Amino acid sequence: MRQAVSSKFNFMASSKMLDLAYLQLSLAKGIGPILARRIVMAASDSVYVALEAEPENLAEVEGIGTARAHTLVRAIRSAKDDADRVYERCQKLGVNVVAFGNPQYPSLLRIASDSPVVIFVRGRFEPRDLHAIGIVGSRKCSMYGLEQAERFGHQLAESGVTVMSGGARGVDTSAHKGAIKTSNGRTVAVLGCGVDIAYPPENADLFARIVDDDRGAVVSEFPPGTPPSAENFPRRNRIISGLSRGVVVIEADVRSGALITARQCVEDHNRQVFAVPGRVDNPTSAGPHKLIREGATLVTCAADILEALTPLPDLNHAIDAPLEIYGAVPYPNNVVVIHPKSKVPEPDPAASLTGDRRTVYEAIMLESTSPDDVVSRTGLEVQVVMRELTMLSMVGLVKRVAGNSYVRKK
Protein backbone atom coordinates (compact mmCIF):
# COMPACT_ATOMS: atom_id res chain seq x y z
CA MET A 1 0.00 0.00 0.00
CA ARG A 2 3.03 2.26 0.01
CA GLN A 3 2.38 5.27 -2.21
CA ALA A 4 4.96 7.55 -3.77
CA VAL A 5 5.44 10.78 -1.88
CA SER A 6 6.97 14.05 -2.92
CA SER A 7 8.66 16.88 -1.05
CA LYS A 8 7.82 19.30 -3.87
CA PHE A 9 4.81 20.74 -2.08
CA ASN A 10 4.36 21.91 1.49
CA PHE A 11 0.70 22.33 2.31
CA MET A 12 -0.76 21.95 5.76
CA ALA A 13 -3.94 19.92 5.93
CA SER A 14 -6.71 21.84 7.58
CA SER A 15 -7.90 20.58 10.94
CA LYS A 16 -11.37 20.10 9.51
CA MET A 17 -10.09 18.08 6.57
CA LEU A 18 -8.05 15.86 8.86
CA ASP A 19 -10.80 15.36 11.43
CA LEU A 20 -13.32 14.56 8.69
CA ALA A 21 -11.02 11.96 7.18
CA TYR A 22 -10.51 10.15 10.48
CA LEU A 23 -14.21 10.51 11.26
CA GLN A 24 -15.07 8.76 7.98
CA LEU A 25 -12.74 5.89 8.85
CA SER A 26 -14.15 5.60 12.37
CA LEU A 27 -17.74 5.42 11.09
CA ALA A 28 -16.99 2.68 8.58
CA LYS A 29 -18.87 -0.45 9.61
CA GLY A 30 -16.60 -3.28 10.68
CA ILE A 31 -13.57 -1.09 11.48
CA GLY A 32 -12.73 -0.63 15.15
CA PRO A 33 -9.98 1.54 16.66
CA ILE A 34 -7.18 -1.04 16.48
CA LEU A 35 -7.93 -2.05 12.89
CA ALA A 36 -8.29 1.59 11.85
CA ARG A 37 -4.81 2.35 13.14
CA ARG A 38 -3.38 -0.68 11.35
CA ILE A 39 -4.92 0.53 8.11
CA VAL A 40 -3.50 4.04 8.50
CA MET A 41 -0.04 2.69 9.38
CA ALA A 42 -0.08 0.48 6.30
CA ALA A 43 -1.11 3.48 4.20
CA SER A 44 2.21 5.28 4.70
CA ASP A 45 0.81 6.73 7.94
CA SER A 46 -1.72 8.77 5.95
CA VAL A 47 -5.44 8.55 6.60
CA TYR A 48 -6.02 10.11 3.16
CA VAL A 49 -4.23 7.24 1.46
CA ALA A 50 -6.21 4.83 3.64
CA LEU A 51 -9.54 6.25 2.48
CA GLU A 52 -8.55 5.73 -1.17
CA ALA A 53 -7.24 2.19 -0.64
CA GLU A 54 -8.38 -0.54 -2.99
CA PRO A 55 -9.33 -4.07 -1.84
CA GLU A 56 -5.94 -5.48 -2.83
CA ASN A 57 -4.31 -2.86 -0.59
CA LEU A 58 -6.46 -3.58 2.45
CA ALA A 59 -5.98 -7.31 1.98
CA GLU A 60 -2.35 -6.80 3.00
CA VAL A 61 -3.33 -5.44 6.43
CA GLU A 62 -3.16 -7.85 9.37
CA GLY A 63 -6.59 -9.15 10.31
CA ILE A 64 -8.34 -8.36 7.02
CA GLY A 65 -7.54 -10.72 4.16
CA THR A 66 -8.92 -10.83 0.62
CA ALA A 67 -12.53 -11.77 1.36
CA ARG A 68 -13.06 -9.07 3.94
CA ALA A 69 -11.18 -6.34 2.07
CA HIS A 70 -13.97 -5.74 -0.49
CA THR A 71 -16.57 -5.32 2.29
CA LEU A 72 -14.39 -2.83 4.18
CA VAL A 73 -13.63 -0.76 1.10
CA ARG A 74 -17.37 -0.38 0.46
CA ALA A 75 -17.89 0.51 4.13
CA ILE A 76 -15.19 3.20 4.03
CA ARG A 77 -16.58 4.77 0.85
CA SER A 78 -20.18 4.76 2.12
CA ALA A 79 -19.18 6.37 5.45
CA LYS A 80 -18.27 9.67 3.79
CA ASP A 81 -21.81 11.06 3.83
CA ASP A 82 -22.24 9.89 7.43
CA ALA A 83 -19.05 11.71 8.40
CA ASP A 84 -20.28 14.93 6.78
CA ARG A 85 -23.59 14.71 8.65
CA VAL A 86 -21.97 13.97 12.00
CA TYR A 87 -19.45 16.78 11.58
CA GLU A 88 -22.17 19.27 10.65
CA ARG A 89 -24.21 18.25 13.69
CA CYS A 90 -21.17 18.68 15.94
CA GLN A 91 -20.65 22.18 14.57
CA LYS A 92 -24.23 23.13 15.43
CA LEU A 93 -23.94 21.68 18.94
CA GLY A 94 -20.58 23.27 19.70
CA VAL A 95 -18.91 19.86 19.95
CA ASN A 96 -15.27 19.56 18.87
CA VAL A 97 -14.27 16.59 16.71
CA VAL A 98 -10.70 15.66 17.66
CA ALA A 99 -9.13 12.97 15.48
CA PHE A 100 -6.17 10.75 16.28
CA GLY A 101 -4.00 12.68 13.81
CA ASN A 102 -4.90 16.06 15.32
CA PRO A 103 -2.23 17.73 17.51
CA GLN A 104 -4.99 18.47 20.05
CA TYR A 105 -5.55 14.75 20.63
CA PRO A 106 -4.44 13.98 24.23
CA SER A 107 -0.90 12.59 24.27
CA LEU A 108 -1.47 9.98 26.98
CA LEU A 109 -4.44 8.59 25.09
CA ARG A 110 -2.53 8.63 21.79
CA ILE A 111 0.09 6.17 23.08
CA ALA A 112 -2.58 3.66 24.18
CA SER A 113 -2.85 0.83 21.66
CA ASP A 114 -6.66 0.83 21.78
CA SER A 115 -7.28 4.58 21.67
CA PRO A 116 -10.31 5.83 19.72
CA VAL A 117 -9.84 7.09 16.18
CA VAL A 118 -11.96 10.13 17.01
CA ILE A 119 -13.18 11.67 20.25
CA PHE A 120 -15.99 14.19 20.63
CA VAL A 121 -15.33 16.95 23.13
CA ARG A 122 -17.49 19.54 24.85
CA GLY A 123 -15.25 21.99 26.65
CA ARG A 124 -11.53 21.66 26.09
CA PHE A 125 -8.37 19.95 27.18
CA GLU A 126 -5.48 21.93 28.63
CA PRO A 127 -1.79 20.98 28.80
CA ARG A 128 -2.08 20.42 32.56
CA ASP A 129 -4.61 17.64 31.89
CA LEU A 130 -1.58 15.51 31.05
CA HIS A 131 -1.37 15.13 34.83
CA ALA A 132 -4.64 13.32 35.48
CA ILE A 133 -5.81 10.61 37.85
CA GLY A 134 -8.90 8.51 37.21
CA ILE A 135 -11.34 7.90 40.05
CA VAL A 136 -13.75 5.00 39.53
CA GLY A 137 -16.08 2.91 41.65
CA SER A 138 -19.57 1.69 42.27
CA ARG A 139 -22.75 3.45 41.22
CA LYS A 140 -24.44 1.96 44.30
CA CYS A 141 -21.81 2.95 46.81
CA SER A 142 -22.20 3.69 50.50
CA MET A 143 -22.09 7.12 52.11
CA TYR A 144 -18.46 6.34 52.93
CA GLY A 145 -17.77 5.77 49.24
CA LEU A 146 -19.41 9.06 48.27
CA GLU A 147 -17.45 10.92 50.93
CA GLN A 148 -14.12 9.40 49.90
CA ALA A 149 -14.68 10.00 46.19
CA GLU A 150 -15.42 13.66 46.81
CA ARG A 151 -12.49 13.94 49.23
CA PHE A 152 -10.01 12.39 46.81
CA GLY A 153 -11.35 14.45 43.91
CA HIS A 154 -11.01 17.63 45.94
CA GLN A 155 -7.51 16.85 47.23
CA LEU A 156 -6.21 15.86 43.81
CA ALA A 157 -7.64 18.99 42.19
CA GLU A 158 -6.09 21.14 44.92
CA SER A 159 -2.73 19.57 44.04
CA GLY A 160 -3.12 20.61 40.40
CA VAL A 161 -4.20 17.17 39.17
CA THR A 162 -7.10 16.78 36.72
CA VAL A 163 -9.70 14.25 37.87
CA MET A 164 -10.92 11.76 35.25
CA SER A 165 -14.11 9.77 35.77
CA GLY A 166 -17.13 8.41 33.96
CA GLY A 167 -19.92 10.82 34.87
CA ALA A 168 -22.04 8.02 36.36
CA ARG A 169 -23.99 7.99 39.59
CA GLY A 170 -22.18 7.29 42.82
CA VAL A 171 -18.39 7.46 42.98
CA ASP A 172 -17.99 9.15 39.57
CA THR A 173 -20.34 12.02 40.32
CA SER A 174 -18.82 12.66 43.74
CA ALA A 175 -15.30 12.69 42.28
CA HIS A 176 -16.29 15.27 39.65
CA LYS A 177 -18.02 17.42 42.26
CA GLY A 178 -15.03 17.26 44.57
CA ALA A 179 -12.71 18.41 41.80
CA ILE A 180 -14.71 21.50 40.88
CA LYS A 181 -15.24 22.48 44.52
CA THR A 182 -11.69 23.77 44.61
CA SER A 183 -10.67 26.99 42.92
CA ASN A 184 -9.41 26.31 39.40
CA GLY A 185 -9.86 22.54 39.80
CA ARG A 186 -10.39 20.55 36.61
CA THR A 187 -12.23 17.36 35.78
CA VAL A 188 -13.07 15.35 32.65
CA ALA A 189 -16.22 13.23 32.36
CA VAL A 190 -15.95 10.39 29.84
CA LEU A 191 -19.41 9.23 28.77
CA GLY A 192 -20.81 5.99 27.38
CA CYS A 193 -23.18 7.97 25.13
CA GLY A 194 -23.09 11.09 23.00
CA VAL A 195 -21.76 14.20 24.73
CA ASP A 196 -25.05 15.95 23.97
CA ILE A 197 -26.90 13.50 26.20
CA ALA A 198 -26.88 13.89 29.98
CA TYR A 199 -26.68 10.42 31.47
CA PRO A 200 -27.67 10.09 34.18
CA PRO A 201 -30.17 12.94 33.61
CA GLU A 202 -29.62 14.42 37.07
CA ASN A 203 -26.02 15.22 36.06
CA ALA A 204 -27.05 17.67 33.33
CA ASP A 205 -26.20 20.65 35.54
CA LEU A 206 -22.86 19.09 36.56
CA PHE A 207 -21.81 18.52 32.94
CA ALA A 208 -22.94 22.04 32.00
CA ARG A 209 -20.89 23.52 34.81
CA ILE A 210 -17.77 21.58 33.76
CA VAL A 211 -18.12 22.92 30.21
CA ASP A 212 -19.56 26.41 30.70
CA ASP A 213 -17.27 27.36 33.59
CA ASP A 214 -14.20 26.08 31.73
CA ARG A 215 -13.50 23.50 34.42
CA GLY A 216 -12.63 20.65 32.06
CA ALA A 217 -14.42 18.67 29.39
CA VAL A 218 -17.13 16.14 28.65
CA VAL A 219 -15.78 13.50 26.26
CA SER A 220 -17.00 10.47 24.31
CA GLU A 221 -15.92 8.32 21.38
CA PHE A 222 -19.60 7.98 20.40
CA PRO A 223 -21.13 10.54 18.01
CA PRO A 224 -23.71 13.00 19.35
CA GLY A 225 -27.14 11.43 19.64
CA THR A 226 -25.78 7.99 20.63
CA PRO A 227 -27.93 6.72 23.53
CA PRO A 228 -26.36 5.02 26.55
CA SER A 229 -26.21 1.23 26.33
CA ALA A 230 -24.54 -1.50 28.36
CA GLU A 231 -21.95 -2.39 25.71
CA ASN A 232 -20.72 1.21 25.55
CA PHE A 233 -19.44 1.41 29.10
CA PRO A 234 -16.49 -1.03 28.91
CA ARG A 235 -15.28 0.95 25.90
CA ARG A 236 -15.76 4.16 27.90
CA ASN A 237 -13.68 2.72 30.76
CA ARG A 238 -10.58 2.21 28.60
CA ILE A 239 -10.62 5.91 27.71
CA ILE A 240 -10.65 6.89 31.39
CA SER A 241 -7.62 4.66 31.87
CA GLY A 242 -5.91 5.90 28.70
CA LEU A 243 -6.28 9.56 29.72
CA SER A 244 -4.92 8.97 33.24
CA ARG A 245 -1.50 8.60 34.83
CA GLY A 246 -3.15 6.09 37.15
CA VAL A 247 -6.55 5.03 38.44
CA VAL A 248 -7.84 4.90 42.02
CA VAL A 249 -10.69 2.52 42.82
CA ILE A 250 -13.17 3.47 45.56
CA GLU A 251 -15.82 0.87 46.47
CA ALA A 252 -16.57 -1.69 43.77
CA ASP A 253 -17.63 -5.31 43.82
CA VAL A 254 -15.42 -7.90 42.17
CA ARG A 255 -17.46 -7.88 38.93
CA SER A 256 -17.63 -4.11 38.68
CA GLY A 257 -16.67 -2.13 35.62
CA ALA A 258 -14.26 -0.27 37.90
CA LEU A 259 -12.17 -3.42 38.18
CA ILE A 260 -12.23 -3.78 34.40
CA THR A 261 -10.82 -0.26 34.22
CA ALA A 262 -8.13 -1.20 36.75
CA ARG A 263 -7.15 -4.23 34.70
CA GLN A 264 -6.97 -2.18 31.50
CA CYS A 265 -4.91 0.39 33.35
CA VAL A 266 -2.22 -2.18 34.16
CA GLU A 267 -2.39 -4.67 31.31
CA ASP A 268 -3.22 -2.44 28.35
CA HIS A 269 -1.81 0.96 29.28
CA ASN A 270 0.99 0.19 31.75
CA ARG A 271 -0.37 2.71 34.24
CA GLN A 272 -0.67 2.50 38.03
CA VAL A 273 -3.62 1.30 40.10
CA PHE A 274 -4.49 2.59 43.56
CA ALA A 275 -7.21 1.32 45.88
CA VAL A 276 -8.97 2.84 48.88
CA PRO A 277 -9.69 0.29 51.65
CA GLY A 278 -13.24 0.06 52.94
CA ARG A 279 -15.31 -1.61 55.61
CA VAL A 280 -14.68 -5.34 55.70
CA ASP A 281 -18.42 -6.06 56.01
CA ASN A 282 -19.36 -3.98 52.96
CA PRO A 283 -19.69 -6.03 49.72
CA THR A 284 -18.46 -3.07 47.66
CA SER A 285 -15.17 -3.16 49.55
CA ALA A 286 -14.40 -6.53 47.97
CA GLY A 287 -13.10 -4.99 44.75
CA PRO A 288 -10.54 -2.59 46.25
CA HIS A 289 -9.43 -5.22 48.78
CA LYS A 290 -8.89 -7.74 45.96
CA LEU A 291 -6.79 -5.20 44.07
CA ILE A 292 -4.69 -4.51 47.17
CA ARG A 293 -4.01 -8.22 47.62
CA GLU A 294 -2.96 -8.39 43.96
CA GLY A 295 -0.48 -5.54 44.30
CA ALA A 296 -2.40 -2.28 43.90
CA THR A 297 -1.11 0.56 46.08
CA LEU A 298 -3.24 1.14 49.18
CA VAL A 299 -4.01 4.85 49.51
CA THR A 300 -5.78 6.85 52.18
CA CYS A 301 -5.38 10.35 50.74
CA ALA A 302 -4.27 12.13 47.58
CA ALA A 303 -0.76 12.60 48.98
CA ASP A 304 -0.31 8.81 48.97
CA ILE A 305 -1.11 8.75 45.24
CA LEU A 306 1.21 11.62 44.38
CA GLU A 307 4.07 10.13 46.38
CA ALA A 308 3.72 6.74 44.69
CA LEU A 309 3.15 8.07 41.17
CA THR A 310 5.91 7.23 38.71
CA PRO A 311 7.16 9.76 36.11
CA LEU A 312 5.29 10.30 32.87
CA PRO A 313 5.55 7.50 30.31
CA ASP A 314 7.67 8.09 27.23
CA LEU A 315 5.67 10.39 24.98
CA ASN A 316 8.28 10.73 22.24
CA HIS A 317 6.29 8.68 19.75
CA ALA A 318 3.17 10.63 20.69
CA ILE A 319 5.00 13.80 19.68
CA ASP A 320 6.07 12.12 16.44
CA ALA A 321 2.51 12.33 15.17
CA PRO A 322 1.01 11.06 11.91
CA LEU A 323 2.18 12.59 8.65
CA GLU A 324 -0.96 14.66 8.15
CA ILE A 325 0.10 17.02 10.91
CA TYR A 326 3.15 17.92 8.85
CA GLY A 327 1.42 18.47 5.57
CA ALA A 328 -0.42 15.67 3.78
CA VAL A 329 -3.22 17.01 1.60
CA PRO A 330 -5.65 15.18 -0.67
CA TYR A 331 -5.93 16.29 -4.27
CA PRO A 332 -8.92 15.90 -6.62
CA ASN A 333 -7.09 13.22 -8.57
CA ASN A 334 -6.58 11.28 -5.33
CA VAL A 335 -2.82 11.83 -5.37
CA VAL A 336 -1.57 12.47 -1.87
CA VAL A 337 1.32 14.90 -1.59
CA ILE A 338 3.24 14.75 1.65
CA HIS A 339 5.81 17.17 2.97
CA PRO A 340 8.52 15.09 4.69
CA LYS A 341 8.57 15.24 8.45
CA SER A 342 11.57 16.86 10.03
CA LYS A 343 13.06 15.11 13.02
CA VAL A 344 11.37 16.20 16.23
CA PRO A 345 14.08 17.32 18.67
CA GLU A 346 14.27 15.71 22.08
CA PRO A 347 12.25 18.03 24.36
CA ASP A 348 13.80 19.48 27.50
CA PRO A 349 11.04 19.25 30.14
CA ALA A 350 12.71 21.88 32.35
CA ALA A 351 12.81 24.45 29.54
CA SER A 352 9.06 25.08 29.69
CA LEU A 353 8.93 25.73 33.44
CA THR A 354 7.66 29.17 34.45
CA GLY A 355 6.60 31.08 37.55
CA ASP A 356 6.70 29.41 40.96
CA ARG A 357 7.48 26.02 39.41
CA ARG A 358 10.71 27.28 37.84
CA THR A 359 11.62 29.13 41.04
CA VAL A 360 11.23 25.95 43.08
CA TYR A 361 13.07 23.84 40.51
CA GLU A 362 16.04 26.20 40.49
CA ALA A 363 16.16 26.02 44.30
CA ILE A 364 16.58 22.22 44.21
CA MET A 365 20.18 21.08 44.07
CA LEU A 366 21.73 17.82 42.95
CA GLU A 367 22.28 17.07 46.62
CA SER A 368 19.41 16.49 49.06
CA THR A 369 17.26 19.60 49.55
CA SER A 370 14.46 19.85 52.11
CA PRO A 371 11.21 21.77 51.58
CA ASP A 372 12.32 24.13 54.37
CA ASP A 373 15.49 24.88 52.41
CA VAL A 374 13.40 25.67 49.34
CA VAL A 375 11.12 27.98 51.37
CA SER A 376 14.19 29.77 52.73
CA ARG A 377 15.79 30.15 49.31
CA THR A 378 12.69 31.27 47.45
CA GLY A 379 10.58 33.12 50.01
CA LEU A 380 7.52 31.23 48.80
CA GLU A 381 4.85 29.97 51.19
CA VAL A 382 5.30 26.36 52.29
CA GLN A 383 2.02 25.21 50.69
CA VAL A 384 3.14 26.66 47.35
CA VAL A 385 6.51 24.93 47.65
CA MET A 386 4.90 21.57 48.48
CA ARG A 387 2.47 21.86 45.57
CA GLU A 388 5.23 22.64 43.08
CA LEU A 389 7.48 19.89 44.47
CA THR A 390 4.61 17.46 43.90
CA MET A 391 4.16 18.55 40.29
CA LEU A 392 7.91 18.48 39.60
CA SER A 393 8.02 14.95 40.96
CA MET A 394 5.11 13.93 38.72
CA VAL A 395 6.89 15.10 35.58
CA GLY A 396 10.11 13.40 36.65
CA LEU A 397 12.27 16.51 37.12
CA VAL A 398 12.91 15.92 40.82
CA LYS A 399 12.67 12.88 43.01
CA ARG A 400 11.93 12.40 46.67
CA VAL A 401 14.69 10.86 48.76
CA ALA A 402 15.06 9.80 52.38
CA GLY A 403 14.06 12.25 55.06
CA ASN A 404 11.36 14.04 53.03
CA SER A 405 13.97 15.77 50.90
CA TYR A 406 14.28 16.19 47.14
CA VAL A 407 17.01 16.16 44.52
CA ARG A 408 17.08 17.07 40.85
CA LYS A 409 17.07 14.12 38.49
CA LYS A 410 20.27 14.04 36.47
Sequence-ordered SSE layout with sheet pairings:
Blueprint: H1 15-27, H2 33-42, H3 47-51, H4 55-58, H5 65-93, E1 96-99, H6 107-110, E2 118-123, E3 132-137, H7 143-158, E4 162-165, H8 171-181, E5 187-190, H9 204-212, E6 216-220, H10 232-242, E7 246-250, H11 257-267, E8 272-276, H12 286-293, E9 297-298, H13 302-308, H14 316-319, E10 328-330, E11 336-338, H15 355-363, H16 371-378, H17 382-394, E12 398-401, E13 405-408
Parallel strand pairs: 3-4, 3-7, 4-5, 5-6, 7-8, 8-9
Antiparallel strand pairs: 1-2, 2-6, 10-11, 12-13
Helix pairs in contact: 1-5, 7-8, 10-11, 15-17, 16-17
Q: Your description of this structure?
A:
The strands form three sheets. This protein has a nine-stranded mixed β-sheet with strand order 1-2-6-5-4-3-7-8-9, with helices on both faces. A two-stranded antiparallel ribbon has the order 10-11. 42% of the residues lie in helices and 13% in strands. It is α/β, with parallel strands linked by helices. The protein is globular.
Quick description:
The chain has 410 residues and is of the alpha/beta class.
Task: Work out the helicity level.
Answer: 40-55%
Largest sheet geometry: 9 strands, mixed
Q: Order of strands across the biggest sheet? A: 1-2-6-5-4-3-7-8-9
What integer value in Å does the Rg equal? Answer: 23 Å
The low-confidence parts are 2-13, 317-347
